[in-house]
């Protein structure tokens, strides 16, 4: 098989992955200021999609449109169309609470509730009525913490405050908390930027494992991280989507000169 | 060319430059000066606090002691009910001439000839007029005491009380002072016998208003204050917290909410007497609520406390880190759930502190209560917030207007009681803060 044929086969394989979310002509305005310009970006199912780009390029803004966290910002206006499994998430028939139960989020700074580890994880299932009995909750807490790779570290101190954990553990607790609601998509906004390299490695490993069950969109400043954890990468610059491609291709042979420059560290 | 160029060691030949003057000394001097200002400000503040506390306590601590005379009182039927009508006329026991019983007992104890009227009168003046109600209450409660002799502890008259506490200068000419030499002699005689002595003054906590200092207390005023505090707490906490949550979390930011915010901040600075006028006009004159009632006082103080609570609550809500809100919203909690499950519990210490400080202000407030008629001579405990009552600071104000020596110490004593309540409330605020404070 020629190299071109292999590439074509790979392309085809990637292209057969169903699309989980579709962003069409997405623009975001903060008051008069326009932060995103007609972004068209698809999120593939059970794939890690990395959003990269220099600071202020709109990647976090785009991420936050995916579960309507921008709604909480005053003067923020979103135009265009974003669908989750064919449903327009900005349609009035979609409740934002329901949407966020399907599209979870992990933030830049670990933000566990100042409550026990158990309460942190069980809070989501409790408000959404996913469990009734104590045993159900125990099970959700255990499996969620296991999925987040935190169970062995905290199983003996579930009643201790989540804020007493180390930074890396807190971030994994936040991931467990998001996982506990059984979302379809998990959005991560620079989840490792406040962590040391060892904690970062653990979270990256975790992202790898989570991919089997969840669709993940991750914003990152680290090229290496994007290369390590993602299958698809989207490059943003000044509110525009510059390029979206397979991660391997993006980091070896990008189509756009600006991507090339950014990856090589010429700006950013 | 095999020789390696040996690196030559260069010795600096530049002369040592004098170091730049970057004003280190000046900076440290400025810092020392600033610290000195701060320390002197604190020292001055502490000095005045000490002066205040010392002057109040030194004048007021004697108010917590009361001179009493314990005498065997003969509940003679001849005096109480000479015609034996008590079975048919219930008024008889109410209107009997009880002070005579005390006078007779004292005259007997001192061995005075009952026919020497001036001496008997002097002896009678040593006992408080309040024996009338005291003895009446004993008899009414248990009419079977009539005809018996039982020891009763009576309040000494305020002048004897002052003299016994050493507050009256006995070197002054007899005609110019309120205590006669004969009375002092009797006083000393009774004191030696252990009949007349100082004991802890429970009356100051339980009595109501009285023109006789020895029978005056802040009990009734405390009940009035308690009613008002209850009304203030029950009304201003929920209203204030609800208003703050709405303004802080739900209300759109526009001209109207800006205007409301400015107004709330200004209302917190409105002189309290203006609230009194408002209460008089709206609650008493317009709504027709009873004058002097704790209900009206409580409503006025609620209005006065609301801005304080709203400002404190909004500040506490603002101080909750946005990351907590994002976390809850990101999990799919509704706005309501986010606020009530996460934001409010974290803001609670701040809200409670603000509320208690607002209540403490309300407890010490006098001016608005004067306008709505709570500056009243209230003898009986108010059974409900609708009955006439007075308040602790108003009681202090009224006593401060009295001329008698014994009222001076009572004024200071009441101030001590008020200060103790305020200290307890503020301590409570600190403890609540410590107890509920959580880290994030």
Radius of gyration of chain A: 19 Å
Which residues of chain B form runs of ≥5 with pLDDT under 50? none
CATH class of chain A equals: Alpha Beta
At CATH's second level, what is the architecture of chain A? 3-Layer(aba) Sandwich
Instruction: Identify low-pLDDT runs of chain A.
Output: none
The CATH homologous superfamily of the largest domain in chain B is called MetI-like
- Please report the two chains with the greatest interface, counting residues with C-beta closer than 8 angstroms to the partner's C-beta: A-B, 27 and 22 residues
Order of the strands making up the biggest sheet of chain A: 6-7-8-3-9-10
By CATH, the topology of chain A is Rossmann fold
Helix % of chain B is 55-70%
CATH class of the largest domain in chain B: Mainly Alpha
Subcellular location (chain B): Cell inner membrane; Cell membrane
Main location (chain B): membrane
Transmembrane segments (chain B): 34-57, 226-247, 267-287, 293-317, 338-363, 413-432
Keywords (chain B): Cell membrane, Membrane, Transmembrane, Transmembrane helix, Transport
Question: What is this entry, summarized?
Answer:
The complex is a heterodimer of chains A (268) and B (440). With 268 residues, chain A is an alpha/beta fold.
